[in-house]
């Protein structure tokens, strides 16, 4: 609880990872409060020293303190948000569930190689929140190959359109936009990209210059 991210990487300490939050549980409020509070911590993260926003709460979770193992209370959209945000944050992907009892949906969440590549990118950068428009947020992470991983998040209770502008992302020119969850190119865009994002949901894309 002592702002470890500010001093944990000091050579005299030798820390490689540290918690940045209190304990998580499988509710939308707790997930969103913890996950989206990580803006500003990115300056303390990099190869060999990573912020940890606590374990992942998908599958049949056990959040401790006498609780019973139970299916996560998060909706599918909330689980996509959870995994997408944790990968953008480059935090440890610690799975708080019995891995021998993964259902097909949970397994698909945890085994999408293009989404996991955002977490495991060798550059080791943590995403920054570039835009906050009420409950609509745009987070972006620089990748080693020069592309950007971008999360368009909708924390509202209804679907909404979220727009990512090149001027906010530090991009210029035509970009190929790829949907990482669907593993499919959406198309080529200039100046901005927008998507309809479901309630408590995300659209996670990778933007790569066509030049």
Explained architecture:
This protein is α+β, with helices and mostly antiparallel strands. It has 2 domains: 4-119, Alpha-Beta Barrel (TIM Barrel), CATH 3.20.20; 128-209, Golgi alpha-mannosidase II (Immunoglobulin-like, Sandwich), CATH 2.60.40.1180. It contains 5 helices and 12 strands. The strands form 4 sheets. Strands 5-6-7-12-9-10 form a 6-stranded antiparallel β-sheet, with helices on one face. Strands 1-2 form a two-stranded parallel sheet. Strands 3-4 form a two-stranded antiparallel ribbon. The longest helix is centred in the middle third of the chain and has 14 residues, at 76-89. The chain is globular, with a radius of gyration of 17 Å.
Q: What does the overall shape look like?
A: globular
- Evaluate the radius of gyration: 17 Å
Q: Output the CATH class name of the largest domain.
A: Alpha Beta
Strand portion? 25-35%
The percent of residues in helical segments reads 10-25%
């Amino acid at each position: 609880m002592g702002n470890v991210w500010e001093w944990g990487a000091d050579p005299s300490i030798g820390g490689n990872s540290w918690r940045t939050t209190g304990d998580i549980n499988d509710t939308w409020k707790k997930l969103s409060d913890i996950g989206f509070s990580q803006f500003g911590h990115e300056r303390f993260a990099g190869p060999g020293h990573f912020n940890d926003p606590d374990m992942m709460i998908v599958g049949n979770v056990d959040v401790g303190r006498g609780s019973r193992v139970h299916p996560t209370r998060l909706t599918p959209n909330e689980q996509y948000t959870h995994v997408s945000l944790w990968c953008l944050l480059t935090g440890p992907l610690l799975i708080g569930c019995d891995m021998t009892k993964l259902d097909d949906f949970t397994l698909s969440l945890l085994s999408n190689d293009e989404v996991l590549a955002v977490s495991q990118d060798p550059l080791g950068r943590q995403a920054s929140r570039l835009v906050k428009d009420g409950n609509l947020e745009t987070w972006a992470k620089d990748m080693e190959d020069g592309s950007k991983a971008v999360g368009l998040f909708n924390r509202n209770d209804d679907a909404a359109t979220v727009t990512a502008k090149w001027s906010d992302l530090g991009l210029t020119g035509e970009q190929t936009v790829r949907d990482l969850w669907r593993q499919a190119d959406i198309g080529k865009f200039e100046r901005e990209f927008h998507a309809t994002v479901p309630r408590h949901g995300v659209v996670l894309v990778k933007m790569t210059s066509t030049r």
